[in-house]
């Protein structure tokens, strides 16, 4: 046995060997399957699959793991410079996911995650994976097909979410020879979390999500140009968390969701925004693209729920000397909304604080009206994220000047029970 | 029940090697198996635990007493668990995980599983075999075939034990 081990692991050093205590008997292999599955679930999925090599006892254990995460970003990064190798790797990855899916044996899936920059060429494979996941009553489904490198991101034609899975009857959809259509049927009733990043999601697809997943609590859509309109409305929606980001053509957002607690909008070009019937909403976060319009829209739509918020985060637009007027508009609207008392707001974060008079006025107004405020976060970084400028040694000085002015002004008025964080 | 009578109820547990242990009911019912017995009224005399030996049961009871003495503070409970498991060798951990499974104590089960997973993390196949005394019953051809099946997986895994 020792000889065999050495062959498998030739790099092993004799000096290390002396440190290891050998066990007389193989206790771990005698543990019941469900205990081993539990242990393997705590390893990365790759490591869990690797255990199949330990001995024949282990060959099937990982196949019961209810959470499948295929994250290739780390491995692919190493070969990102050689595009051809990357393509080959990508094909290998697709094959690997296919083979895992073929041998996987768990009857129900808790989580299914794909993280790789796959283009529309892989649509067929992705459709098959989703079928597999839905047939196994998946609860958490995440597709992150973004390329980490911006270069790739531009080149890619993103894969579209296979809407036909949600419209066809399961019998038609599973005409392939996949073992996943093992007669158990598809059941969308189990899906609680759906996260789609850099996957093409159309208005029609979004509608189907809302209609077909009655238990959906968390919905995240990021990086699609094809989503123009979003409607998350219904008296019985289970939706608690809605997050829409980097959907530049998104013009209309309509939300009426009685269970919604969190709404996050970032880099969306919303023109029509309606947020109604959200009695449980406690957290709103908005990141404007460059013009501050989004923050203004949110504030305009906020009169019926702003006083119930506990966390309200507005990232105002980038401050450059040329664009100073638009954040001013936002602050003007914001000031009008903090004129009345807020009995729930506990955290106030101010990004890109520059210390101009209207900003100071706004903060004073916040301190006066947010009567249960516990935490104030100030980010005095005024540099624009939209221009990659070389690090300027003056930047630090200027930032320090902003911080100093803040300390002299607002900080001296700050009640002691409020925690202050300067980023 | 303890709260009603004012005096804490004590249960007697019997290991499979006939050792007897006294433990406060409030601590013992961390085990769903024992709680069910108590609720069904089977806890009057001695509760036999056929799948747990005395040494392991003593250890589990130490854990039960320790963790139930901590008020509802998840951070403190976690640090107690970490400390409790820190000096246990794998033999003991294996006994504990079996006992926790039998007694249906999810918090102990999770902690011990995490501890075992931690040992396996980022280690090569050879290292894990040696550490746990796992006998490799594959022929070299079989082993190569298993590796080949999920080749992509093995390429990406980095281990930190051999260098």
From TrEMBL, chain A:
Gene3D superfamilies: Ribonuclease Inhibitor. It comes from Erythranthe guttata. Residues 28-64 form the F-box domain. Residues 100-321 form the At1g61320/AtMIF1 LRR domain. InterPro entries: At1g61320/At1g61330-like, F-box-like_dom_sf, F-box_AtFBL13-like, F-box_dom, FBD, LRR_At1g61320_AtMIF1, LRR_dom_sf. SUPFAM superfamilies: F-box domain (SSF81383), RNI-like (SSF52047). This is Uncharacterized protein. Residues 342-378 form the FBD domain.
From TrEMBL, chain B:
GO terms for biological process: jasmonic acid mediated signaling pathway; protein ubiquitination; SCF-dependent proteasomal ubiquitin-dependent protein catabolic process. GO terms for molecular function: cullin family protein binding. Residues 108-152 form the SKP1 component dimerisation domain. Keywords: Ubl conjugation pathway. Residues 11-65 form the SKP1 component POZ domain. Belongs to the SKP1 family. This is SKP1-like protein. It comes from Erythranthe guttata (Yellow monkey flower).
């Amino acid at each position: 046995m020792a000889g065999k081990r050495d062959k498998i692991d030739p790099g092993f050093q004799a000096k290390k060997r002396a440190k290891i205590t050998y066990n007389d008997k193989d206790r771990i292999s005698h543990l019941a399957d469900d205990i081993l599955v539990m242990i393997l679930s705590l390893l990365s999925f790759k490591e869990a699959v690797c255990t199949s090599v330990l001995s024949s006892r282990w060959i099937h254990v990982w196949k019961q793991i209810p959470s499948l995460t295929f994250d290739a970003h780390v491995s692919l990064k190493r070969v990102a410079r050689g595009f051809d190798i990357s393509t080959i790797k990508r094909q290998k990855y697709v094959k690997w996911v296919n083979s895992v899916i073929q041998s996987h044996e768990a009857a129900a899936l808790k989580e299914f995650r794909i993280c790789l920059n796959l283009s529309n060429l892989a649509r067929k494979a992705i459709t098959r994976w989703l079928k597999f996941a839905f047939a196994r009553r998946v609860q958490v489904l995440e597709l992150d097909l973004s390329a980490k490198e911006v270069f790739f991101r531009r080149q890619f034609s993103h894969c579209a979410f296979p809407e036909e899975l949600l419209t066809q009857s399961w019998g038609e959809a599973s005409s392939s020879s996949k073992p996943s259509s093992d007669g158990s049927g598809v059941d969308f009733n189990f899906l609680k979390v759906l996260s789609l990043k850099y996957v093409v999601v159309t208005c029609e697809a979004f509608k189907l999500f809302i209609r077909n997943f009655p238990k959906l609590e968390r919905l995240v859509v990021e990086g699609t140009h094809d989503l123009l309109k979003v409607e998350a409305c219904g008296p019985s929606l289970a939706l608690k968390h809605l997050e829409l980001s980097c959907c530049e053509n998104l013009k209309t957002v309509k939300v009426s969701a009685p269970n919604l607690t969190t709404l996050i909008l970032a880099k969306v070009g919303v023109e029509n925004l309606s947020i109604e019937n959200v009695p449980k909403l406690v957290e709103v976060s908005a990141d404007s693209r460059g013009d501050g319009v989004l923050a203004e829209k949110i504030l305009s739509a906020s009169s019926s729920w702003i006083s119930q918020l506990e966390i309200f985060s507005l990232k105002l637009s980038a401050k450059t000397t040329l664009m100073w007027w638009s954040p001013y508009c936002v602050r003007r609207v914001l000031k009008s909304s903090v004129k009345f008392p807020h009995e729930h707001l506990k955290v106030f974060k101010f990004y890109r604080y520059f210390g101009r008079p209207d900003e100071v006025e706004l903060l004073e107004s916040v301190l006066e009206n947010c009567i249960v405020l516990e935490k104030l976060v100030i980010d005095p970084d005024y540099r624009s994220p939209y221009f990659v400028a070389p690090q300027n040694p003056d930047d630090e000085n200027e930032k320090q000047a902003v911080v100093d002015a803040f300390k002299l002004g607002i900080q001296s008025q700050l009640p002691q029970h409020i925690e202050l964080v300067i980023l | 029940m303890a709260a009603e009578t004012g005096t804490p109820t004590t249960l007697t547990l019997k290991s499979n090697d006939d050792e007897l242990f006294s433990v406060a009911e409030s601590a013992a019912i961390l085990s769903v198996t024992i709680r069910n017995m108590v609720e069904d009224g089977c806890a009057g005399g001695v509760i036999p635990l056929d799948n747990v030996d005395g040494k392991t049961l003593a250890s589990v009871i130490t854990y039960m007493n320790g963790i139930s003495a901590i008020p509802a503070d998840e951070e403190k409970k976690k640090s107690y668990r970490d400390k409790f498991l820190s000096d246990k060798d794998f033999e003991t951990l294996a006994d504990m995980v079996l006992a926790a499974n039998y007694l249906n104590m999810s918090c102990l089960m999770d902690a011990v599983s995490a501890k075992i997973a931690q040992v396996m993390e980022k280690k090569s196949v050879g290292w894990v075999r040696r550490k746990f005394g796992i006998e490799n019953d594959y022929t070299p051809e079989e082993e190569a075939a298993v590796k080949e099946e999920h080749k992509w997986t093995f390429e990406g895994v980095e281990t930190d034990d051999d260098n």
